[in-house]
Amino acid sequence: MKIEFLGTSGGVPSLYKTQSQHSEALHRTGPAIYIHDLQVLIDTSEDIFYQLRRSQIYDIKYGIYSHWHPDHTMGIRIWETLNYDFINKVPQSKTSKIFLTEQQKSDFKKYFGHWEHLNYLCELGVIEKEIIANNGQIQIGEATIEWIQLAEEIAFGFYISTSTQRILIIPDEIKDFKPIDKLKNVDIAILPFGSNEVNPVTKERIHEAGMLEALNETRFEESVGIAREINATHTYFTHIEATESLNKSQIRILEQQLKDDGLSAVIAYDGLQIIT
Ligand SMILES: [Zn+2]
Fold first, then answer.
1. For the segment 67-107, what is each residue's pLDDT rounded down to a tens digit?
2. Which GO terms of the molecular function aspect are on file (predicted)?
3. Is 203 exposed, middle or buried (0-12, 13-18, 19+ CB in 10 A)?
4. Cα–Cα distance between 3 and 77 in angstroms, integer?
5. In this structure, are residues 257 and 199 in contact, taking their beta carbons and an 8 Å threshold?
């Protein structure tokens, strides 16, 4: 299976303070992940247009969402951009299927007009939508995708299994998440990085003391703790805030520190592909 990190930034992208460790992906853009074999796109940030162009992804069959927050949804019009036929008198548009859980349906009705926008896209004929249970699952070829409702109930992770592989993807909002046994010892876990009040390598202060607690944000240490419980063969951290501003050598040091502590983890960057 080929999984690509289209964007690895966190909730507050920054125009001026963003960097990652990869020379060809110096900036982190909005969170999105694409599973090539299944043609499944997870989340559509405001950066999705350029991410898809960069990665030359032009044909997406399925769209799924982690939650309604703007960093994961503000590029929702991409379904029109991708699929609408602006050539023929009678449009021969492509159609992608968008799955939302019951929880997400009610959130999309409440925030940003997302539900109305999806209805418009349905009328255009560029998407179909299907509402599934909060712990629902779908089958795509030989893969099953199961929605995992998190402790932060607005948000979902995805458990993808085939006869030979088990993959857990949690794009964001992992705070207080307690993985059930089924989600442990997976082959791959993709998890949110969380945030640091001080740079984990240089110890330089990033945020005012007590800010993460005041905002109820997940700390990096908490994410690492959950990653240890999940105990995947390979762990990838994504959703990395621009304010972290970890440069190439700091990322290497951080990955080595995690390895020394027994966690084999990679800090993802835009364009990183996992082939399993
Ligand atoms: Zn987010």
1. 999 999 999 999 999 999 989 988 899 999 999 999 999 99
2. hydrolase activity
3. exposed
4. 23
5. no
Report the alpha-carbon distance of residue 86 to residue 8 in Å, rounded: 32
Give per-residue pLDDT as tens, 187-208: 999 999 998 888 888 888 888 8
Three-state DSSP state, 56: coil
Does residue 267 sit in helix, strand or coil? strand
Output the pTM of the full model.
0.94
> Is the distance from CB of 91 to CB of 84 less than 8 angstroms?
yes
The residues pairing with 148 across neighbouring beta strands, listed in sequence order, are 157
Domains detected in the chain: 2-275 (3.60.15.10)
155 in Cβ contact with 103 (< 8 Å):
no
Report how far ligand 1's centroid is from the alpha carbon of 173 (Å).
7
Quote the ligand 1 centre to 122 CA distance (angstroms). Answer: 26
C-alpha angle with apex 42: 182 to 244, nearest 5 degrees?
A: 90
Query: Most distant CA pair in the chain: distance in Å?
Result: 62
Q: How many CA atoms lie within 13 A of 87 on its CB side?
A: 5
